Amino acid sequence: MFENLTERLESAFKQIKGEGRITELNIAATVKDIRRALIDADVNYKIAKEFTDTIKEKAMGLKVLTAVSPGQLMVKIVKDELAGLMGGTESELNAKGNPAVILIAGLQGSGKTTFSGKLASYLKTKKGFSPLLVAADVYRPAAIEQLKVLGGQINVDVYSDPENKNVVQIALDAIKEAKSKNKNVVIIDTAGRLAVDEAMMTEVANIKAAVNPQEILFVVDSMTGQDAVNTAKAFNERLDFSGVVLTKLDGDTRGGAALSIKYTVNKPIKFVSSGEKLDTLDVFYPERMAQRILGMGDITTLVEKAQAQFNEAEALKLEKKIRKNQFDFEDFKQQLQQIKKMGNIKDLLGMIPGVGKAMKDIDISDDSFKGIEAIINSMTPYERANPDVIDQSRRKRLAGGSGKDINEINAFLKQFEQMKQMMKTMNKMPMGGRMGMNMGKK
Fold first, then answer.
1. For 186, which of 13, 158, 222, 319 is 20 to 30 Å away at the CA?
2. Does 189 lie in the same domain as 67?
3. Could you report how far apart the first and last alpha carbons of the chain are, in Å?
């Protein structure tokens, strides 16, 4: 995400990083380039100018002018200001109530229904809630069915009343249903339109007045840039929503929406979403997003994603096997499957400082591991547990079974052996490999 903006900002910093000392002249040039980068990222000119004026004012302070590494200090100033522009700190979701009611609003096509499913999954699996999804979009064909499919995938009940067109009554009946079934959070998916209109606004406002929700989340397609900000303003004036959700961050996102919405409506971005998978929902952390925009990576989020998939008992078991040089293909396959559960592979790599830029023009599919898995799946249980027994005849059989060339089999086995040796060496170090293993411990 934000690849072009990251590239432009890095280019702006280059001229100042090479300077022995910072002057008013080179600060002005850098700030001008930053402003252009923000405007090209579809940030409103007024916001971009105010943002860069603040940076210039702080950069002209004596601390920057006399700093040992003025270029690095300049980057820190920009990072802090970017985080502040996006809200400063993360914003908690208010899910307290009996039941708590969360109203989802936004234009048609923004990803409201998919987000509703993701939010239900998040609240159920990560927060221990018992959610009820409510299909209150009675206009869009198959909207109710879509929500039921999503609910079925995460084993969450969906309330609907296809015969009733009164969405306020549907919402009220759903809350009664939630109370009778001991559901402690109700997520109401409302109808959208292709553009802001009075009928849509009135309908959502009527639901709000009737159910008095703890949260009203405005869902917006981040790829629409400045249009997203204008739409947010219109919705906020009518609904006074409590938070923003940015969807489709895996698309061609320039960054304008993420950088401008908080400033425009003074409401926090609470979640960011990418892809169709129901586990691709993340709490929005302004500081972490600022780091990613500046190409600094996001190790904290990467570790958290790892922690969600690995547990201490498994990590210790694996560490013991590595120490005894018993790490086998079954272990390797399990590790691949856990990594895949963490999310989009290219996005994960982008969280490692310096790697995101290197991977910019490389297409990494989530299917990247399929070839390796095919080779491992072609092995017998004995071969998986005893990598050393795989001789030339077995390699030929694996090539035929996996649809791979014999050279690919040889290369994979060689890489696996090198990885085993590296893991064993790291585990002999005082801190070494245990850092990797302990990353997943809770």
1. 222
2. no
3. 29
> Does 94 map to a domain?
no
* Separation of alpha carbons 45 and 225, rounded Å: 13
User: Do residues 344 and 359 make contact, with C-beta atoms less than 8 angstroms apart?
Assistant: no
Specify if 255 maps to a domain: yes
Please, which pLDDT band fits residue 432 given cuts at 50, 70 and 90?
very low
3 state DSSP class of 87: coil
Residue appearing with tokens 């060496």: 425
* CATH classification at residue 24: 1.20.120.140
Output phi, psi for 321, to 5 deg. -65, -40
Q: Are 100 and 185 in contact (CB under 8 A)?
A: yes
Span 199-226, pLDDT tens digits: 888 888 999 999 899 999 999 887 776 7
Total-model pTM = 0.67
269 - beta bridge partners? 244
C-alpha separations of 434 from 147, 315, 319, 328, 351 in Å: 43, 9, 8, 18, 21
Q: CA-to-CA distance for 226 and 43, rounded, in angstroms?
A: 7
Cβ of 42: how many Cβ atoms within 10 Å? 21
Number of DSSP helices (H) and strands (E) in the chain, helices first = 22, 8
- What's the domain count of the chain? 3
Residue 128, classed as helix, strand or coil, is coil
Range of the domain at 369: 301-438
- Arithmetic mean of pLDDT, 258-268: 85
Question: Under a CB-based contact definition with an 8 Å cutoff, are residues 165 and 173 in contact?
Answer: no
Model confidence at 16, pLDDT cuts 50, 70, 90, reads: low
Helix, coil or strand: residue 222: helix
Report the candidate in 263, 249, 98 with the shortest Cα–Cα distance to residue 185: 98
Q: What is the mean pLDDT of residues 108-129?
A: 89
Domain endpoint, select from 296, 313, 330: 296
The pLDDT of 93-109, averaged and rounded, is: 88
Q: Which of 198-202, 307-311, 339-343, 357-361 has the lowest mean pLDDT?
A: 357-361
Is residue 269 within a helix (H) or strand (E), and if so which, with residue range?
Answer: strand 269-273
Residue 186 lies in a domain: yes
What residues does 283 pair with on adjacent strands? 271
